[in-house]
Amino acid sequence: MSQSETAPSSPAALSEYTVRTIGVKRMYKIGNEEVHALRGVDVQINRGEYISIMGPSGSGKSTLFNMIGGLDKPSEGKVYIDEVDIAQLDAYELAWMRCRKIGYIFQTFNLIPVMTALENVMLPMIFSGMNTADAQDKAAEILKRVELGHRMLNRPSEMSGGQQQRVAIARAFANDPAIILADEPTGNLDLSTGTHIIGLLHDMNKERGVTVISATHDHKMLAVSDRIIWIRDGRVDKIERREDLDIQIGSIGGEH
Amino acid sequence: MTQKNPSSSGKEIQRQITLPLSKAVEIAWKNIRMRMSRSLVVTSGIVLALAFLMFILSGDVMVDGMRHWMETAPASPQFIALEKQQKELQGQIQAITTKLFDAQRSKPSGDGKPPFDAKAVLGNDFATLQRELGAMPLPPDDLTKLLTAQADLLDVMKNWMALTRESRAIKQTLSGPQQLASLMKQNGVPTAAREIKASKVQTRWLAGLALLVAFAGILNAMLMSVTERFREIGTMKCLGALDSFIVKLFLVESSFQGAAGTFMGILLGLLLSLAGASSSYGQFAWKMFPVKEVSVNASICFVVGIVLTVGGAVYPAWQAARMHPIEAMRADM
Prior knowledge:
The complex is a heterodimer of chains A (256) and B (333). Chain A has 256 residues and is an alpha/beta fold. Helices cover 37% and strands 27% of the residues of chain A. Chain A contains nine helices and ten strands. In chain A, the strands form two sheets. A six-stranded mixed β-sheet of chain A has the order 6-7-8-3-9-10, with helices on both faces. Chain A has a four-stranded antiparallel β-sheet with strand order 2-1-4-5. In chain A, α5 (132-145) packs across α6 (161-172). The two termini of chain A are 34 Å apart.
């Protein structure tokens, strides 16, 4: 399920791409200077894949990540999410997509501080128009899945970083999205908590067939990723499969 | 999963639904409750601003009311009749005395009628009469001579005396306005028409200033409460909140705070101006309390308070809602 490494030549396989970018470029103007964050990126991400986007800061990694998440639009080129060109979407359709198709996980957790864990997980369901009773049941179920059944009525300030991130994961899965976007999900966590979070994401990726895309510096992520996209200077440096990774892991370590 | 969401498998993109206002109210209410201390700070700013405005406005109408009372209260018909009668008698006295005086000048004294003993006729009243008639055009010495000469003048005078006492007694009961006038003078409140006009302009300036202070305070409070939640707004947008929902959320929240703060501010301002008026004017503050004007002012203040609060929140909320989700996320708190 996770490894649909079919050649993209057959038309049937096209629909298997959850995310596809074609010649994506992104320029920013800072004062009079033009900054090229992306200089033409082509990637295809299959349904149910676990992808890590790696790269040094300033490589354009975050920009590509935001592009894939529908948070930013390309200056040139196309981004397709579920075969829909996101540049064509209006504000309502983008909001709908962010609500239903994409689940976001942030480095800083970004839970709503005034809401309990349960209410935080319910929020995207309420935005999708689900009634409160159903949302409550479903949110409780997901929270139990991330082993937080006992902390449902606690607010973020009463929880540890790892627990907060698990609430955030539950929230990202709330509307059964097609894609989970995780931006440095372990960046603010200690080693063992980070490992736990990565394991949880990986399990849920396999269990639900959701595509997980994460931008990260964390090398623990590589072990569970199906593919790793390396970004450098606004271009795809290399794309590695996990099978190949075992051979190269020494060289990755050697880079630092 | 209790229910499978069709969206994750379907290819079709739909439009995000607009959430009902009740949802915004629900979340806004939760926000206010949870951030009680923060909302109290915001609300207290509104309270102070509106209290200032209400204090200025209601103080003004209360002074107006007292001034009105002062001008209208002495117009009792009895008093006016007395004053008129007194003036007539005074004229009579004047006429008789002038006549007598002239007559006496032309005739040498000592001849004719026997001397008339004024003291015997008037008794103790004579001294009083002398004292009270001190302001008369004739000195008491001459008057005594005249009184001895003319008995009908004495009648007129006695009459005049009685009327003076009566009108003075009436004046005593009606002395409120005079007391109030002196109090107003003490407090530097103008009573002359031209001065009143000038002070009205001054009051208007003060009210305008109060309004400006209120606007700046409220706008600042609203801006702060929005900017400190940029990250939250960005998160909500990532979770599928529409811009309009974010705006709605902040408008509902601010109108709650605005209504509560304005109400308390009006109450506080009214109490302060009542306390101020009763400490400067005592019982007169309640003589003619302008209920209608004060309630009109209170409603004006209420509308102003709500409009300022919601208006102060519209701009930052709209700004925040328009922001790109990533920009909102980037804002480091």
